[in-house]
Inverse folding.
């Protein structure tokens, strides 16, 4: 997943240090993290794994194979594709979603992300990712890769079916590797993109206790992600014609 990473390069840079510097965070169940302050993010979820699977989703996050969305931020192109593939992770069959970042036709990062939806609630959970980071056209590292059930990592909530302003939750629970967390800022914003203007958008603020800064994402009902910080939706198979 093109997660919150406030350091260069590409879409991940959005230096807004004040939010993190102004608050201390409480995290239950994550060893080694501070346990003081007032801001609490949920990091465990009462889910019956028997209800999780690679199909479905909700109005903001679909697991429908063949769904393709393209975003651009300057010269960098991000293409997100819901593949017809699944992968068993932590005892759950998950849907594979590929994210491909390119600049000038050269890959910057290619990740295979694993998601499962709850058939009873339509909440969508994130079970990890395999990552290839490129430099000069060659794979240079696999930074930020993690899988639920491996090395103490646990799945997180990527998208609640019923977003409530003020809700805070972990999207990834992989200590020392990936601890992205989300806060619902609004469910009624308007976002303009090259693909169109979208109303009643869900606005998510993302932070991590591993890094300072924050990033922002917007999701349109029935469409999905339409803006990721400076990256705007150019085209998408789920966009109404």
């Amino acid at each position: 997943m093109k997660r919150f990473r406030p350091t260069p390069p590409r879409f991940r840079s959005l230096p807004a240090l004040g939010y993190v510097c102004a608050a201390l965070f409480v995290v239950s169940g994550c060893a080694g993290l501070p346990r003081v302050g007032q801001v609490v993010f949920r990091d465990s979820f009462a889910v019956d794994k028997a209800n999780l699977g690679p199909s479905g989703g909700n109005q903001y996050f679909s697991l429908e194979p063949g769904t393709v969305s393209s975003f651009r931020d300057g010269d960098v192109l991000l293409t997100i594709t819901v593949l017809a593939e699944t992968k068993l992770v932590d005892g759950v069959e998950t849907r594979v979603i590929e994210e491909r970042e390119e600049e000038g036709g050269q890959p910057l990062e290619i990740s295979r992300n694993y998601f499962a939806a709850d058939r009873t609630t339509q909440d969508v959970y994130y079970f990890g990712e395999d990552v290839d980071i490129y430099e000069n056209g060659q794979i240079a590292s696999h930074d930020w890769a993690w899988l639920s059930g491996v090395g103490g990592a646990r799945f997180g909530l990527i998208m609640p079916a019923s977003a409530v302003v003020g809700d805070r939750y972990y999207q990834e629970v992989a200590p020392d590797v990936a601890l992205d967390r989300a806060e619902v800022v609004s469910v009624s914003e308007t976002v303009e993109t090259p693909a169109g203007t979208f109303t009643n958008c869900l606005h998510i603020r993302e932070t991590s206790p591993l890094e300072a800064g924050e990033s922002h994402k917007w999701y349109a009902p029935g469409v999905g992600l339409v803006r990721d910080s400076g990256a705007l939706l150019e085209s998408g198979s789920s966009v109404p014609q």
About this structure: Residues 18-21 form the longest helix (4 residues). The helical segments are 18-21.
